[in-house]
Inverse folding.
C-alpha cells in the first residue's frame, strides 16, 4: 500500500471519527487558577498558574490523526517564612485511541534546557541529545500510551526558599501526538509540597482541559 493510499484511508477514518484539520491561529488564552492553604498554626502556602495559552498547528506531514500544539504557562508557588517548598509542574495528555506522544521543550523557558518524549514502538527506550535551531540541548525518551490512559509529562521542578515565591516559566512547550483517532485532551498541573517545623503539606491546581 503506497503513501497516498494510506493517507486517503486515514482521511476517511478521520472523517468518520469527526476529526478535522487544524489550522494555525493566534494563541488562545485560558483562565488562571490559584489555591491558598492555611494550616491550624497559621502557616500558609499558595500554588497557582497564569498566562496559560495554546496554539494548535497543522502537523507537518498532513496526517489527520496527528496533532501538534504549542503551550505557554507560568507556574508559581509561595511559602510563608519558616517553611520551604518544592514546585512541580507539567501536563497530562490523554487520547481515547492508541497514540504516540512527543514533547519538546525549547529555549523559551525560565529554567534548564529541554527534553523530548515520544514513542517509536521499540522495546527499549531511546535516548538522544543534540542542538537544534533554538540552541537548546535536548534528551529524548520514547513512551507509549494505552487507549484511555493518562500520561503525565513534567515541565520542571523548582525548590522554593523560605518566605519566597518561585516560578517555572514555560513558553512554546511543543506537544506532538501521532496516531490519535479520537479526541486528544491536555491539562496542566501545578503541585506544591511544603515543609516547616510544625507543618508538612501539599496542594495542587489543574488548568482547564484543552481539547484537540
Amino acid at each position: 500500500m503506497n503513501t497516498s493510499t494510506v493517507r486517503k484511508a486515514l482521511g476517511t477514518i478521520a472523517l468518520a471519527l469527526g476529526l478535522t484539520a487544524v489550522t494555525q491561529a493566534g494563541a488562545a488564552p485560558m483562565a488562571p487558577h490559584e489555591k491558598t492553604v492555611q494550616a491550624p498554626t497559621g502557616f500558609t502556602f499558595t500554588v497557582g498558574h497564569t498566562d496559560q495559552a495554546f496554539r494548535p498547528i497543522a502537523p507537518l506531514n498532513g496526517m489527520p490523526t496527528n496533532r501538534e500544539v504549542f503551550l505557554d504557562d507560568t507556574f508559581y508557588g509561595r511559602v510563608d517564612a519558616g517553611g520551604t517548598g518544592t514546585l512541580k509542574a507539567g501536563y497530562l495528555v490523554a487520547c481515547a485511541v492508541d497514540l504516540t506522544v512527543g514533547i519538546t521543550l525549547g529555549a523559551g523557558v525560565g529554567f534548564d534546557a529541554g527534553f523530548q518524549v515520544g514513542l517509536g514502538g521499540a522495546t527499549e527506550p531511546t535516548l538522544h541529545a543534540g542542538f537544534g535551531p533554538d540552541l537548546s540541548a535536548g534528551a529524548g525518551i520514547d513512551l507509549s500510551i494505552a487507549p484511555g490512559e493518562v500520561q503525565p509529562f513534567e515541565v520542571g521542578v523548582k525548590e522554593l526558599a523560605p518566605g519566597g515565591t518561585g516560578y517555572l516559566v514555560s513558553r512554546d512547550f511543543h506537544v506532538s501526538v501521532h496516531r490519535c483517532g479520537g479526541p486528544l485532551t491536555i491539562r496542566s498541573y501545578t503541585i506544591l509540597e511544603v515543609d516547616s517545623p510544625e507543618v508538612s503539606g501539599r496542594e495542587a491546581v489543574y488548568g482547564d482541559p484543552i481539547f484537540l
